[in-house]
Fold these 2 entries.
Entry 1:
Amino acid sequence: MALLPEDIIDRLIQMERRLNALSTAVNTRPPLTEIVNGSLALRRRTDPLDPSVTALVAQFTTSGPDGTKPVLRVLDAYGHEVLSDDLLSGGLARPWLPMLPPQTMVTASWPNTAATAWTTIAQSQNPIWQPKLRLRMFTRVSSGAAGQVRVLAGGVPFGPTVAAGTVFDHTAAVTADMQADFGKDLTVEVQALVTSASGTVYAKPVLMHGRQT
């Protein structure tokens, strides 16, 4: 049987159905500016002649390995991770932002005390961007004397009390609630005392930075 042209009415009905389906799809899908429970990976072509050869530039995922936390990763042109979040506690995993300038090694100019009770000889305040802190510090004591050096972070002992003349190097958490303390100022104090009849104890921080969980 020969094919007959469709009736114009039938064609209009089919067109109306397609328009309704298209309208329904547009109104029920999220906009392209929003991703719900999904991920977005930005890639760049590393081979102009082969579009299948790409390198990851940034990754944004609405759920991490445990299925609840988002993931943020940004990489440079060489694949180095230059920005990432801390999945366990929040805040930054990278970069480690602070860099301490070179410090004088002339002991006489270091913070010091001759007191026989704990005395704050150096202090700083820093916002909490990461849950952990690393502090490395050189200590000295005058000839024939003895003393101790300790660190307080937020008024709480941070790391061990060391004998003057040894290196203090400690990494530990400075908050038990990263969500509540994020961005708050943290006071770090260096305290020292002389344990001999007389003398002077010196201390000089040479490295301090935040760390991820």
Entry 2:
Amino acid sequence: MTHFAATDRNTSGRRKSTLFCWGCDHENPLDGDWDRRPIDRHVEYVCPVCETTIAKRPLPNSPPTERATPTPSVMWQRTLHTTMGVWRASIDVGLSTLAVATAVQASSGHR
């Protein structure tokens, strides 16, 4: 088996961390000429040409946000909601199958 070097596969010369502005087609590496604006616990990457916000990323020193553990009543509510959705879908499929079977029998009986 032949293995290619990473430079052989990536002939465009672009780095994986290249950002692209959809407003003016400006492109540059993540650590390039983008304007960095810290807001709360995030930093926004803004295009230096057209002022379009390209990305919003957490600051490196900010703690990761933790998801709150749902309470038992919320978990039961989600379970009940999902169960009712599945039940409704199975009833709809059953009724559709019954309608098709009835239509097939009615059309075959008229011949």
